[in-house]
């Protein structure tokens, strides 16, 4: 059992933990919750003798951690998954810990199998992902088969399968009569894992109770009631009836009614007596996250605010061309009817020189030719005025044909 009495820790002028008292009993998973900067990590460090309390005392089984005989065989902990020499393999890291604590070498291979790292046991830990590092840290905590276990954010970086494995592992260890103390910010996971909660805020105790009692004490249960959408008069009638019976009725954004102060059977009876047909009558219980946010909203040290300069940001240009880079000026767009589109390249008509458009002067396109040529002008004059088109033999036809012999596509 872990017991803290009047635990206080100051760092200069800052008080990280103040007069904190609690007990972590065996046989249950105890969750340790609190906002960032509330003193959770500092408390765990004092439990493990890494920091000395300014005042008060914390013991494990009635003894200070420093006075425990062969502490690694009695207490296992994961506080920092990165506290590993990157040049050592996973097996050598565990083997060095085992030799320091007098643990048989066979136990190293056992815990590697428990955490699923037997396939990478010979690889250096510096190449491990965050989730693999977490598994290695859990293996180190289990190495001495201890009766007391402390975990700080054990599911950080794990995939869904790993999170489920950690959850089942915690429950199994607690069912064996061990003391399991877990700190986490994942409320949904803590709701599925923990049996008891210890909540602190700004270094002081805020709650020490079961998870069921914590949710009930920090949330307001209500009933959701819905009537047919096409009968607003029945909705108003039911609202009046429930209010006169002592209930509090609030409209929901989706058209339902939130009713507090009345039990579900009483709401059903009142609706029946008022001849109101119900489409929905369901209880709603707050989640652990809702209860936690409601309790700790006044103990949060770090709050985000709206960016006061957000309105100064430049809006992106309306043109969203493929491969467009910042500062790139897009070409002027032309109507689709004037420019045939086929991806980014419009092939010329059959038999036409693809470079003729670039060589032809722009004047004839802007000034249309007269409908009838003057009779006194030679017939060959208009032809002589325009450049003669290149002969088909001289056209660079080979440039319009793509050699696909080495094209990877």
From TrEMBL:
<protein>
    <submittedName>
        <fullName>ATP-binding cassette domain-containing protein</fullName>
    </submittedName>
</protein>
<keyword id="KW-0067">ATP-binding</keyword>
<keyword id="KW-0547">Nucleotide-binding</keyword>
<dbReference type="GO" id="GO:0005524">
    <property type="term" value="F:ATP binding"/>
</dbReference>
<keyword id="KW-0813">Transport</keyword>
<dbReference type="InterPro" id="IPR027417">
    <property type="entry name" value="P-loop_NTPase"/>
</dbReference>
<feature type="domain" description="ABC transporter">
    <location>
        <begin position="2"/>
        <end position="227"/>
    </location>
</feature>
<comment type="similarity">
    <text>Belongs to the ABC transporter superfamily.</text>
</comment>
<feature type="compositionally biased region" description="Low complexity">
    <location>
        <begin position="353"/>
        <end position="397"/>
    </location>
</feature>
<feature type="region of interest" description="Disordered">
    <location>
        <begin position="304"/>
        <end position="409"/>
    </location>
</feature>
<dbReference type="InterPro" id="IPR003439">
    <property type="entry name" value="ABC_transporter-like_ATP-bd"/>
</dbReference>
<feature type="compositionally biased region" description="Basic and acidic residues">
    <location>
        <begin position="399"/>
        <end position="409"/>
    </location>
</feature>
<dbReference type="Pfam" id="PF00005">
    <property type="entry name" value="ABC_tran"/>
</dbReference>
<dbReference type="InterPro" id="IPR003593">
    <property type="entry name" value="AAA+_ATPase"/>
</dbReference>
């Amino acid at each position: 059992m872990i017991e803290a009495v009047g635990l206080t820790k100051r760092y200069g002028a800052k008080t990280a933990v103040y007069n904190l008292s609690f007990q972590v009993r065996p046989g249950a998973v105890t969750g340790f919750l609190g906002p960032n900067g509330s003193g959770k990590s500092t408390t765990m460090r004092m439990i493990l003798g890494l920091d000395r309390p300014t005042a008060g005392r914390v013991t494990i089984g009635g003894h200070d951690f420093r006075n425990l005989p062969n502490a690694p065989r009695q207490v296992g902990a994961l506080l920092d998954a990165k506290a590993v020499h990157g040049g050592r393999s996973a097996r050598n890291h565990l083997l060095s810990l085992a030799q320091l604590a007098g643990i048989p070498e066979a136990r190293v291979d056992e815990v590697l199998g428990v955490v699923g790292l037997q396939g990478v046991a010979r690889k250096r830990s510096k190449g491990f992902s965050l989730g693999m590092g977490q598994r290695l840290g859990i293996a180190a905590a289990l190495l001495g088969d201890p009766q007391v276990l402390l975990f700080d954010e054990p599911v950080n970086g794990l995939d869904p399968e790993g999170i489920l494995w950690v959850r089942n592992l915690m429950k199994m260890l607690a069912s064996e009569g061990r003391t399991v103390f877990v700190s986490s910010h994942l409320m949904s996971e803590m709701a599925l894992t923990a049996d008891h909660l210890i909540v602190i805020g700004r270094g002081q105790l805020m709650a020490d109770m079961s998870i069921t009692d914590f949710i009930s004490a920090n949330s307001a249960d209500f009933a959701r009631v819905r009537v047919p959408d096409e009968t607003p008069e029945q909705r108003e009638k039911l609202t009046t009836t429930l209010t006169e019976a002592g209930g509090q009725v609030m409209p929901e954004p989706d058209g339902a009614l939130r009713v507090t102060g009345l039990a579900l059977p009483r709401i059903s009876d009142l609706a029946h007596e008022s001849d109101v047909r119900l489409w929905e009558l369901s209880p709603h219980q707050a989640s652990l996250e809702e209860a936690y946010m409601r309790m700790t909203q006044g103990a949060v040290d770090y709050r985000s605010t709206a960016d006061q300069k957000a309105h100064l940001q430049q809006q992106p240009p309306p043109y969203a061309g493929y491969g467009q880079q910042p500062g790139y000026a897009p070409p002027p767009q032309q109507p689709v009817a004037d420019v045939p589109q086929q991806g980014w390249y419009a092939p010329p008509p059959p038999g036409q020189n693809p470079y003729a458009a670039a060589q032809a002067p722009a004047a004839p396109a802007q000034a249309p030719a007269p409908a009838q040529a003057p009779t006194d002008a030679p017939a060959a004059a208009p032809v002589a005025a325009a450049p003669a088109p290149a002969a088909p033999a001289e056209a660079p036809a080979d440039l319009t044909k793509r050699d696909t012999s080495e094209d990877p596509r």
